[in-house]
Amino acid sequence: MIKRVLCTILICSIPALFTTGCWNYREINQMSIVSGAAVDKTQDGKYKLTVEIIDLKSGGKDVVIHSKKLESYGDSFFDAVRNTIKFNSQKLYWGHVETIVISQKVAREGILQILDFLARDAEPRLSIDILISKEDTAAQILNSQSITTEVRAFEVNEMLDVEKALSKSVKTEVYQFINALGDEGVSAVVPVIGLKKNSGIETSQLSGTAVFKKDKLAYMFNEEDTKYYLFIINKVYGGLLVLQEKQGKNISDITLEIEKSKTEIKPVYSNGKLHFELTIRTKTNLGEVDNNAKYKNNLEFEKVANEAEKMLKKEVERVIRAVQLEYDIDIFGFGKSVKEDIPDLWKKIQPQWADIFKDVPVKVDVDVKVNHSGLLSKSIMMGD
């Protein structure tokens, strides 16, 4: 019995010797905490790294978090990171990085080296948001004025999170991009961010989508096309549909608020031919009307829903054909759906998928429901 007790104590004690603290523990005042980064390249091919670091030197009861910007250069991305020690005695700490903005020049050459550092190093999280700068450099985005917070990178991260209510931008984290690189039948996409003057202040604004071929930037498309792209890949969580309705010589707008949307992609192989059936089911509410029509019965709702279906079907088909004809890169995951649903077929067509994708027919079926008209059954009337 005594031996058993001693063995139990010994077994419990040995692990405790190796779990008494963090192996790489550092005091917070010994670190420069990075909140975000921007990656550019100089004319001579060196990496230019701009990092935003949190300023924790403020004191007092009401501590306001500020940020500072540092610039560093190197032959590789990691070299630029490490070279910050030349002028900053504290090593950069990457455990709280929220966003990394990459210039178009760097992205067109390939971002594998950057991803390799972020995935290989122990500090960065794989949930970091990746964005492509619409401007000449990525540093311009990081250096732009914030509106809601002093920390630029944190605000960009929050913009991507709340953008679901608009559905005009994608959100891509490091691990998602890496997964897309290793997957078949789908290419990676990343949000684009640019500069915009707001009340006289130049700040950043989400501005569409960047499409990658492997790890290299291939092309970009605008935010309106992004909305219909999100419908296709089943990533619409909110947003609006604006319809134009003719009433005689006048054209009025009807705005529907998207409550819920679901899209299904089904590959169909019949008689030696492949096509896709894309089904979109969207529930909406009447959000705004600028005509004199009354909306208080199912017939009126159905009329609006039919117009919405026509518009949505037309725009989704337009985006699909544009991607097929102009870019021939499968960003919809059509190939992935074949791989999952008809694996034997995928083994045969996978080597030629880029060519097959260009011409594969896609049948789009859209169903829109208008649930209610809010607190009004008709638009507000004006007297003489």
SSE topology sketch:
Blueprint: H1 2-17, E1 31-41, E2 47-55, E3 66-74, H2 77-82, E4 91-93, E5 99-102, H3 104-109, H4 112-120, E6 129-133, H5 139-142, H6 152-162, H7 174-182, E7 189-198, E8 201-213, E9 216-221, H8 223-232, E10 240-247, E11 250-270, E12 273-289, H9 298-327, H10 334-341, H11 343-349, H12 353-359, E13 362-370
Parallel strand pairs: 1-4, 1-5, 5-6, 6-7, 12-13
Antiparallel strand pairs: 1-2, 2-3, 7-8, 8-9, 10-11, 11-12
Helix pairs in contact: 8-9, 10-11
Family: Belongs to the GerABKC lipoprotein family.
Signal peptide: 1-18
Domain Spore germination GerAC-like C-terminal: 207-374
Mean of the pLDDT scores? 88
Q: SSE order in H/E notation?
A: HEEEHEEHHEHHHEEEHEEEHHHHE
Number of strands: 13
What does the radius of gyration come to?
A: 26 Å
The amount of helix comes to 25-40%
Structure class: alpha/beta
The description of the largest β-sheet is: 9 strands, mixed
Describe this protein with a few key phrases.
384 residues, alpha/beta, GMP Synthetase, Chain A, domain 3, 9-stranded mixed β-sheet, 4-stranded mixed β-sheet, 12 helices, Spore_GerAC_C_sf, membrane, GerAC_N
Write up this protein.
The strands form 2 sheets. Strands 1, 2, 3, 4, 5, 6, 7, 8 and 9 form a 9-stranded mixed β-sheet that branches. The chain is built from 12 helices and 13 strands. The chain folds into 2 domains: 195 residues, no CATH class; 151 residues, 2-Layer Sandwich (GMP Synthetase, Chain A, domain 3). The protein is an alpha/beta fold. A hairpin with a 2-residue loop joins strand 11 and strand 12. Helix 8 crosses helix 9 and helix 10 crosses helix 11.
